[in-house]
Specification:
Blueprint: E1 27-31, H1 37-46, E2 49-55, E3 58-63, H2 68-76, H3 78-84, E4 100-103, E5 106-109, E6 112-113, H4 128-132, E7 147-152, E8 167-171, H5 183-193, E9 209-214, E10 224-225, H6 226-238, E11 243-246, E12 248-249, H7 255-266, E13 270-274, E14 292-298, E15 321-326, E16 330-333, E17 341-346, E18 349-355, E19 364-374, E20 387-391, H8 397-406, E21 411-415, E22 436-439, H9 444-447, E23 452-458, E24 462-466, H10 468-484, H11 491-500, H12 521-531, E25 541-542, E26 548-553, E27 558-565, E28 570-579, E29 583-590, E30 601-603, E31 610-614, E32 620-630, E33 632-642, E34 651-655, E35 659-661, E36 666-673, E37 682-690, E38 696-701, E39 707-711, E40 721-727, E41 737-745, E42 752-761
Parallel strand pairs: 7-9, 7-11, 8-9, 11-13, 13-14, 14-15, 19-20, 20-21, 21-22, 25-27
Antiparallel strand pairs: 1-3, 1-4, 2-3, 5-10, 5-12, 6-24, 16-24, 17-18, 17-23, 18-22, 19-23, 26-33, 27-32, 28-31, 28-33, 29-30, 29-32, 34-42, 35-42, 36-41, 37-40, 37-42, 38-39, 38-41
Helix pairs in contact: 2-3, 5-10, 6-7, 10-12, 11-12
Active site: 152, 184, 469
InterPro entries: Galactose-bd-like_sf, P_dom, PA_domain, Peptidase_C_arc/bac, Peptidase_S8/S53_dom, Peptidase_S8/S53_dom_sf, Peptidase_S8_Asp-AS, Peptidase_S8_His-AS
Keywords: Cell wall, Hydrolase, Protease, Secreted, Serine protease, Signal
Length: 762
C-alpha cells in the first residue's frame, strides 16, 4: 500500500494489567498536622518507611512488605514497634501523632496510540477535534491571565510549537526534569495550547499559559501515585493555575487525593481528568471524584471511542462521564527527537509502517534482505543477517522479536492479522536491541516476497494518538478558551456551562458513554454572554403546596428560595425529596437568608430527604436554602401551610434524662405516652452533644416495634445534633405506649451525650 499521508508510530502507554503494582512496595498516605510532621517522618523512617512525598498536611511513604493494617498498628504503637526492631523510643515519640493512614493508589497515563492524517511538517494542521469543539470559532484572550496546570510526563523544551515565555514547571521526585521530554505530556500540552504559528498544529487555547508538573517518567511512562497528584494540586495552586488537566488515573479512591481537588475547586478552579481506556464500566480516579470533571472520548464523526470507560452514575452525574472531546486519532505535538514516522521501501515502492512501542528503533534507516519467519515461535537460522518478516499471533510481540534477534536477525517487521494499523508493545525495560516496526495486512504479499528492503524512521515532532488522554486536554483547552473571554466566572460555573451547551450524542439526554455530549466552545461562550455565568435565572419564589422539581446543584453550591406566609397560617413545613443518592441539606430562616450557621430550622440527614417543621409560623417571608453537601440532581422542594383556623393541639412528651453515647454501641432512651389517637402526624426534637456527629444513626421505635430512621450516618466531622424530624412512618400505629429513641455510634474515638428528646403529636 502506498504511503500518501503522514504515518505515525503506535506506542502503547495505555492503562493495563502490565502496570501492576507490587504489593511489597505498597505506598501509604499519612495525614498529619504540619507541626507534628517532623516527628511522624522520623518515626516512619525508623520503622522502615521510605518517604516519597512531603506535602502540606500529609506525607507518603513505602513500607516494604507491609499491609495497611500493619502500618497502622506500627505507627499507632511506636514504642512496641520500635522495640520489635531492637530500637528505643526517643523523646520526640509523643509528637509522632497522625490523623489517618490510607492506601496511596497508583495512577497511570491513559492513552493508546494509532495512525494520523496530514503532514504538519509542511504547514499548520488544524486537528479535527479543534473544529469539532468549535475552538476555531472563538478567539483566545491572551490577556486574561488564564493558566492550565498539566500534570503528566513533562514537555519537550525544544519544541517549536509552544510559547516558552509563558510556560513554567515543577518536577516530582524521581521523574527527571519537567522540560526534558515526555511524549505523552508533550502531546497533551499541544492539544491544550500549541501556538497558532503557521506550522505544526494549533491547540484549543493557542499560547495559553501552562504550568507543567511531571509525575511520570518520560522514558517508560512509569506510574505516579495518588499522593503525587494531591501534592501536584498544591503546586498547581501555588503556580496560580485556573485549571488542572490530568490525562491519567487508576483504581481506588482516597480522602487525601479527593480533598486536594475539592480544595482547588472550592477556591474557584476547575479540575479535569480522563475516564480511562479499558472500555468497561470501571470507575477511575481521580476522574471519579465529584469535584473532578470526568472526560470521555469520541471520534471525528461523533461516534464513540470504543475504549473509553463508562462508569455508572452512582450518587450524581458528577462521578461519571460528563462530556467528551476528540479522543480517537488526535494529532498533536510530540518530542522532536522521538521517532514517529516509519516507511518501508521495496524497489522504489513505499508501504505504511508504525513503530513498535518500547522498541530500540532510533531515527535513521535500517536495511537488508528479508526473511519470512511465519509467527516466529522459535529461533530460525534462516533469519541470520536478515530483517525478519513476522506474522502476528500465537505468542507475544516481545517473544517474536526476541526469537528474531536470537536467530541473528537485524530488524523485525510484524504484519497485522486484521485490517488497520497494529499497536505492538514490546514491554517496559526489555533488553531487545533490534529496530522493530509493524505493517498492514494488505501489504503482506509484498513484504513476504523476499528481497531487499529499507525502513526509514523519522522524528517529526508530531504524532496521532488515541485515548481519553487526548480528549481530556481537549476539554481543558476549551475550558481555558471560553473562560479567557468570561473571567468573571468560577471554574464550577464553566463546568456547568460546558455541560449545558454540549452537543448531545448517543441516547437523548445524559448517558454513561457521552455524558451530556461533545463540548462546544462557541456555544458555551455565547451562552455566558446571553445568560451570565450561572445560566438563565429561574423564579425562586415558592407557592404553597406546589413542588419545585428537578433541582440540581454541585457540591458546595446553594439554591435559595423565598416563601410568603400569611397571618394565621399553621402547620408550616418545608420538605425535600429525591436527589439520585446525593446529599441536599435544608435550612430555613424567617426574615433573612438561611444557612448552616444561621437558621430557625435545619435538616441534615445525610441524604436529600429533609424536613423542617415550624411550630409557630410568623407572617412574612421565610428564606429557604437547599445546600449541596454532595452533588445532587432531581430534588423536589415543597413548602406548605394551612390557612387560618384554630391552631391544632399538640401533645408533647419529653425525656430529659441524659444518657452517655459510647463508641460502637447503641444508646436507648424511652418515653411513655399515655394518650390515644393516631401517630400519623408527629415530630421528634433531639438534643445531642457529640464530637463527631457523622458517626451517629438515630432510629425511632414505636410501641408496636415499627421503626423509622430519623438520621443516617453522614461521615461529617461536625459537632452536636440539635434537629427536628418529621415522623411519617407510623400511620397505623397507636401513640399510646413506650416510644424509644436509639442512637448508634458506629466508630471509635469520639463520644457524646443524649441530653434530651421530645416527641410531639398533633
Amino acid at each position: 500500500m502506498k504511503v500518501s499521508k503522514f504515518t505515525a508510530s503506535v506506542i502503547a502507554l495505555a492503562v493495563s494489567s502490565a502496570f501492576a503494582v507490587q504489593a511489597a512496595d505498597e505506598r501509604y498516605i499519612i495525614n498529619v498536622d504540619n507541626n507534628n510532621k517532623a516527628a511522624v517522618k522520623a518515626l516512619a523512617k525508623k520503622l522502615g518507611g521510605e518517604i516519597k512525598v512531603d506535602a502540606d498536611g500529609f506525607i507518603s511513604a513505602t513500607f516494604k512488605g507491609k499491609s495497611l493494617n500493619s502500618v497502622k498498628k506500627m505507627m499507632s504503637n511506636p514504642v512496641e514497634a520500635l522495640a520489635a526492631k531492637g530500637l528505643k523510643a526517643t523523646s520526640d515519640i509523643n509528637n509522632a501523632v497522625f490523623n489517618a493512614i490510607e492506601i496511596d493508589h497508583p495512577r497511570y497515563l491513559m492513552a493508546t496510540y494509532d495512525d494520523d492524517a496530514g503532514d504538519p511538517r509542511a504547514q499548520q494542521i488544524t486537528p479535527y477535534s479543534i473544529k469539532q469543539s468549535q475552538a476555531d470559532q472563538v478567539t483566545f484572550n491572551a490577556n486574561a491571565g488564564m493558566k492550565v496546570c498539566v500534570v503528566d510526563s513533562g514537555l519537550d523544551q525544544h519544541h517549536q510549537d509552544f510559547n516558552w515565555n509563558n510556560i513554567t514547571g515543577d518536577n516530582d521526585s524521581g521523574t527527571g526534569n519537567w522540560n526534558d521530554g515526555g511524549s505523552h505530556g508533550t502531546h497533551v500540552a499541544g492539544t491544550i495550547g500549541a501556538l497558532d504559528n503557521n506550522i505544526g498544529v494549533v491547540g484549543m487555547a493557542p499560547g495559553v499559559d501552562m504550568h507543567i508538573i511531571k509525575v511520570f517518567r518520560d522514558t517508560d511512562g512509569k506510574w505516579g501515585y495518588s499522593s503525587d497528584l494531591a501534592h501536584a494540586a498544591q503546586k498547581c495552586t501555588d503556580a496560580g493555575a485556573n485549571i488542572i488537566s490530568m490525562s491519567l488515573g487508576g483504581g481506588g479512591a482516597n480522602a487525601t487525593e479527593e480533598n486536594a481537588f475539592d480544595a482547588f475547586t472550592a477556591a474557584g478552579g476547575l479540575v479535569v481528568a480522563a475516564a480511562g481506556n479499558d472500555g468497561d464500566n470501571t470507575r477511575s480516579y481521580p476522574a471519579g471524584y465529584e469535584s473532578v470533571m470526568m472526560i470521555g472520548g469520541n471520534s471525528k464523526d461523533n461516534g464513540r471511542y470504543e475504549s473509553s470507560q463508562f462508569p455508572s452514575c452512582q450518587a450524581t452525574r458528577d462521578d461519571c462521564v460528563e462530556v467528551t472531546a476528540g479522543g480517537l486519532d488526535v494529532l498533536s505535538t510530540y518530542p522532536m527527537d522521538t521517532p514517529t514516522l516509519a516507511e518501508i521501501n521495496i524497489g522504489g515502492q513505499t508501504y505504511a509502517a508504525s513503530i513498535a512501542s518500547d522498541s530500540n528503533t532510533p531515527p535513521g534507516t535500517f536495511s537488508g534482505n528479508t526473511y519470512y519467519m511465519g509467527t516466529a515461535e522459535s529461533t530460525d537460522a534462516g533469519a541470520n543477517g536478515n530483517i525478519c518478516v513476522i506474522d502476528r499471533g500465537n505468542i507475544s510481540f516481545h517473544d517474536k522479536v526476541q526469537n528474531c534477534e536470537n536467530s541473528g536477525g537485524t530488524g523485525a517487521i510484524i504484519i497485522n492479522n486484521e485490517a488497520g494499523t497494529l499497536g505492538a508493545t514490546l514491554g517496559e525495560n526489555n533488553s531487545l536491541t533490534i529496530p522493530t516496526v509493524t505493517a498492514l495486512l494488505a501489504d503482506k504479499a509484498a513484504l513476504t516476497a523476499g528481497g531487499f528492503m529499507s525502513v526509514d524512521v523519522t522524528a517529526t515532532g508530531y504524532n496521532t494518538i488515541s485515548g481519553t488522554s487526548m480528549a481530556t486536554p481537549g476539554v481543558s483547552g476549551v475550558a481555558a478558551l471560553v473562560w479567557s473571554n468570561h473571567t468573571q466566572c468560577t471554574g464550577t460555573q464553566i463546568r456547568e456551562v460546558l455541560k449545558a451547551t454540549a452537543e448531545d450524542l448517543g441516547d437523548a439526554g445524559h448517558d454513561v458513554y457521552y455524558g451530556y455530549g461533545v463540548v462546544k466552545a462557541k456555544a458555551a461562550s455565547d451562552y455566558i454572554t446571553e445568560h451570565g455565568c450561572s445560566g438563565p435565572v429561574a423564579s425562586n419564589e415558592l407557592t404553597n403546596g406546589v413542588a419545585k422539581t428537578g433541582l440540581a446543584a454541585s457540591k458546595g453550591q446553594d439554591l435559595t428560595y423565598t416563601f410568603q406566609v400569611p397571618a394565621g397560617a399553621t402547620n408550616l413545613s418545608f420538605n425535600t425529596s429525591g436527589g439520585n443518592g446525593g446529599d441536599a441539606d435544608l435550612y430555613v430562616k424567617f426574615g433573612s437568608a438561611a444557612s448552616s450557621s444561621s437558621n430557625d430550622c435545619k435538616s441534615e440527614s445525610g441524604s436529600s430527604t429533609e424536613s423542617c417543621a415550624i411550630a409557630s409560623a410568623q407572617e412574612g417571608t421565610y428564606h429557604v436554602t437547599v445546600s449541596a453537601y454532595s452533588t445532587f440532581s432531581d430534588v423536589s422542594l415543597v413548602a406548605s401551610y394551612s390557612e387560618g383556623g384554630s391552631t391544632p393541639v399538640t401533645n408533647t412528651y419529653s425525656n430529659t434524662t441524659s444518657a452517655s453515647i459510647t463508641d460502637n454501641n447503641t444508646t436507648s432512651s424511652s418515653i411513655t405516652v399515655n394518650d390515644s389517637g393516631s401517630s400519623a402526624i408527629a415530630t421528634v426534637d433531639v438534643d445531642i452533644t457529640h464530637t463527631y456527629s457523622g458517626d451517629l444513626l438515630l432510629t425511632l421505635v414505636s410501641p408496636s416495634g415499627a421503626e423509622q430512621v430519623l438520621r443516617s450516618y453522614t461521615g461529617r466531622s461536625t459537632d452536636d445534633i440539635k434537629e427536628s424530624y418529621n415522623v411519617d412512618g407510623f400511620a397505623s400505629s397507636e401513640r399510646n405506649g413506650n416510644w424509644t429513641l436509639k442512637v448508634h455510634d458506629n466508630a471509635g474515638g469520639d463520644t457524646g451525650t443524649l441530653n434530651s428528646w421530645t416527641i410531639n403529636f398533633k
